[in-house]
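hey so i finally got around to running the thing on that chain from the lab meeting. sorry it took forever, my laptop kept dying and i had to restart like 3 times. anyway pasting the input first so we r on the same page abt which one it is
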Amino acid sequence: MTVDSREQLHLPEVPERLRPTLDAGHPVAWREPLTITTYEAGAPSPYPMFFDRRVYQGSSGAVYPIPFIESIDREASPRDWDAVHIENEYVRLVVLPELGGRIHVGYDKVTGYDFFYRNTVIKPALVGLAGPWISGGVEFNWPQHHRPATFQPVEVQIETDADGTVTVWCHDHDPFARMSAQHGVRLRPGSSVVEVAVRLHNRTPQRQSFLWWANVAARVHDDYQAFFPEDVHHVADHARRALTAFPAADRPYYGVDYPALARDTPGTDRIDWYRNIPVPTSYMIVDSQQDFFGGYDHAAGAGFVHWAERRVAPGKKLWTWGDAPFGHAWDAQLTDADGPYIELMAGVYTDNQPDFSWLLPGETKTFTQYWYPIPAIGVVHQATPDAAVHVDRDGTAVSVAVAVTRPRPGARVEIRSAGLVVQDQRLDLEPGVPMRVSAEGVAVEDDLDVRVLDADGRVLVRWVPGEPADAEEPWVAEEPPAPADIRSVEELYLTGLHLSQYRHPTRSPMPYWRAALDRDPGDSRTHLAVADRLLRQGRYDDALGHARAAVARVTLRNANPTDAEAFYLLGLVLARLGRTAEAQQAFGKAGWDATWAAPAGFALAQSLAHQGRDRDALRILDELDAVAAHDPRRIALRAILLRRTGRDDDAQRGLDVALIDDPLAATLRFLAGEEIHDTGILLDVALEVRDAGDTATALLLLGRVQSAEVTPTGNLGPIAHHLAAAIHEAEGRLDDAAAHRRRAEAADLTWAFPSGLDALDALERTVAADPDAATARMLLGTLLYASGGRRADAAAQWDAAIGLGLRHPVLLRNAALAAFSVTGDDTRAWALYEQAVALAPDDARLRYEQDQLAARLGQEEAERFERLEPHEALVLTRDDFAIAYVRVLLAVGQASRAHRILCEREFRPWEGGEGEALAAWDATLAALDLPRTDPPANLGEARNPYTPPIARHASGETDYFATSLPELLLFTRQPVED
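ok and heres what got predicted. didnt touch it at all, straight out
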């Protein structure tokens, strides 16, 4: 066993001012820095990463506009992390706001057990979507896996209810669609339950896909067992591409022949035990009707339960690196002394990965997840938020072990058999204290019925035997056929929708949708899907044609269709084109359909407010309140309108009420006078108040963004200037607009990665007003290249910026990517890299990319060596570059030099790059005619004796179900438009 983690990560004592509250039985929360030994993440790359075809967790690994971090310090040092501590008489928690609001510590004060894996160091590995990721605690993943902002800060607020309940609210706007997410970590008086209350709000005008997985880490060893409900008879891999029985695997899974292993050593087919899984493995349960699962440490006699309503939270998953040298090497990359862990993940609105659901415009989804520690009762057979039971059945004897989450004096444990009560024992139950009740002479096991009741007879938890496995196996996913092989227009449409919704990294929906429209040129569903995709790309005129075609089909026989989404989408496109009156008409019609009444009504009210038609807008908002669900955007817009019409008190009352339920809603907080520090959220609020017609306030907020310090989370200063210029221009202040554009041209461009349609519109207005604005063209090209479907337009903007005389390493590199991947001009691509390297000769990323391009262009290794050898020290600063250099050395006959690098340099594996260092090691040994040996520890890898699921076929085509790939696809020939 490892060293007690509590001794390695010291938690501060409760402040004296809060001690009386805790002693009185109420939870407390306070903010106090926590010193943790930390391996710092490096500065992000200055280059935007266009990874839309990168395979990550089975879906798109696109990371733009997040700056991508590619390095981790090799030496650790103490760091004070912002921390929020939460404690009651049973549980101690630590939340780290600077790391996505994750729970870093979950400690059971009664049993002295860390029920969540407490990593005593912050030691990132490059396995996150945007680079660094740490193990331990609970990571809240949204809107995809792993959380894009997992290494970025969240806003925090501590809330205490009248009954003493404490909630630590964490809030961010996701870096991609800018949807709002709040999760509140909550402790109640007298309860050992950790609640996480979640509010996911789509504050955008378009429907958005999302998932939510809570990633819970548990420290493991040979005696740790994951448990799932007894009705779980099968588990599935990512995307349900493979299936096996559970808990005993009945077929090969992840390349491991478990039945064969069990023939030699009985029990080794049980994949609920960490010790039996030798390779990196995921499995997700299939079709359980139960609400709980968790993990149990048999050596410690403790564990935890997760509970959430299955109707919205069906996802239950285990992930492990595997109990073998390969997995242990990964464990060592993520901790110094705390050993291996598994992840027991809980999915809401999802049961697989990738598996995305939808949020409608303005929609808010709320749900709660519950965790609690359990004492020495064994694996759990049934659980509720009130209690958990373990039931042993041995012939005619039954033994029931019980754990509760609140003190339950006078509780009863009742055992029935064949409808008769065979045991009814009264007990005083306490959290953290296991209690056991037995019954002998039970005649019929299948008729067992175990109940735990409180003193008033209310059932806390009830267990009955699970149903036997169904003879018919659950379905397994299949790769969709090519468009030509699909018979129906509907299936073509649905296949494209699946690829879009699940963010498939290597398959575009457009071939399926084109085929559907070839067969039925008026199909409304497909026109809507295409219009939505084109709108997101900023191709408004093209989107308009498809939206009008959809409206034409749905109104062919009926002017009042059952689904008015076509009118709503038409309104969005018309609004972007500046055709306000037509947009308002379309929104009005969309509001006839209850599904679209709320988003269309809000869009209409917002449009009217922007025109200054305040009373008309208020009337619409009042009507929506009677028929539409809660939408913070609507409350904010009403407050702005009420203040403009002199009703300040009414506005404040509405804000006060709304903030009780939505305490960190950004625009509501701003309107209520609270301070907002996050520049991304400030920009979002500025756009919301601008769209409500309050351009003066929008300009003030944009000014704060313009003057903000550039940080590794991104640089919004330049785009804030362009947005301000667009406001001034629209209001006739052309000199002010020009001044902002001049400042934008002179601004710091480090990590300036604009995104979203508002940024696109503002940049296009700048280019129209000043065709010589080279920096604006650079930023516009960057946005277009990242948006998908407009890479030829992006290349044209970059070429224009270069033609205007702008010489910037990021611009030249970006244009080189486009020259190779889009226009196919290899000569120009090479020349642009040469120019970029000349401007930034000490940039290892730039030289690495140039060398990768050299390999793709077929340059001889001797030529590559001649270019790299003078810069060997720089080359060796990057793991991927060092591996590439080792291969070059082998090719030019310098195997001894390659061997020395591999023996002396410390490597760290990266997501998708597993096996690269090991392959270089084996190739080097072969070149030196040395026997094949295990790699040295400094390579950071060990051999995997099993073959993982295929990622790329022999033909070079990416497997449809691939979950990761080594290459980042910077230099991949691709269609100009999808």
